[in-house]
Amino acid sequence: MLTPMVAGGVVFPGLFLLSKNTLQRLPQLRWEEADAVIVSARLVSSVQAVMASTAGYIVSTSCKHVIDDQHWLSSAYTQFAVPYFIYDIYAMFLCHWHKHQVKGHGGDEGGPRAPGSTWAVARGYLHKEFLMVLHHAVMVLVCFPLSVVWRQGKGDFFLGCLLMAEVSTPFVCLGKILIQYKQQHTLLHKVNGALMLISFLCCRVLLFPYLYWAYGRHAGLPLLAVPLAIPAHINLGAALLLAPQLYWFFLICRGACRLFRPRGSRPPSPCQTQE
């Protein structure tokens, strides 16, 4: 177990530092640190997503029996990905910190920071990214022990499907980068937005009904009978995992409405503009 976790602890922070230093030092680029940090964090998230979804596809397509079939990659990648969630909490804080400095809240460049400014930024970060930080913490403190210990080698098919939820992450990251650089009205942003919406719907929202359907097919049960046939704590866990996905999907849909609204149309209603 230790070797994959050590590898993940080297790969993800190492890739972040390599990307940041490259963007800052290449003569053709010479990016500012804030831009390099933000783009590098998105790049690492995209790389992890591609790796996770690829591993998930291999596992889920290799397991013909949804309960008993096993694949070594399911536990190996789960252990490898644990350091990513810890790293990403810090990377998101760095992005928030640099955005805070760019907006002029952190004092003059090179000058002393105002007393308590670091704690103020940290509080703002936790307030803004609370759901994402909680999601990462749950992945490390709850989902990882459950997937490695509690499963006892059962259900690799379902774990593989859950890993494929990361398919939408590269589109989310690219969308954030395009917004950061004021490219909201480009064709690339609109195409990426459509792909993000479709991939998020299929791989994060509809994933859970699909898992219930797959188990029902295995057990010879109709879809609506599956929740009553499985333990209550599994239904609770699925509901807790689905809830933030529905919230984020709502935000994506709201952004898509703004993106594809024809220019010159009426402004959105208050329910559309409230954060």
Short description:
With 275 residues, the protein is mainly alpha-helical. The protein has 12 helices and no strands.
Salient structural properties:
275 residues, mainly alpha, 75% helix, disordered C terminus
Walk me through the structure.
- The protein has about 280 residues and is mostly helical.
- The protein has twelve helices and no strands.
- The chain has helices at about 1-25, 35-60, 70-100, 115-130, 130-150, 155-165, 170-180, 185-205, 205-220, 225-230, 230-260, 270-275.
- Helix 7 runs antiparallel to helix 8 (about 185-205) and helix 8 (about 185-205) runs antiparallel to helix 11 (about 230-260).
- The chain is globular, with a radius of gyration of 21 Å.
- The termini are far apart.
- The model is unreliable at about 105-115 and about 265-275 (pLDDT under 50).
Q: Could you state the oligomeric state of the chains shown? A: single chain
Number of E strands: 0
* Overall 3D shape: globular
Uncertain stretches of 5 or more adjacent residues: 105-115, 267-275
Strand content: under 5%
> What structural category arises from helix and sheet content?
mainly alpha
Please report the number of helical segments.
12
Q: Give the SSE order as H and E letters.
A: HHHHHHHHHHHH
What does the main sheet amount to? none
Termini separation:
42 Å
As a whole number of angstroms, the C-alpha radius of gyration is: 21 Å
What is the helical fraction, as a range of percent?
Answer: over 70%
Mean pLDDT comes to: 87
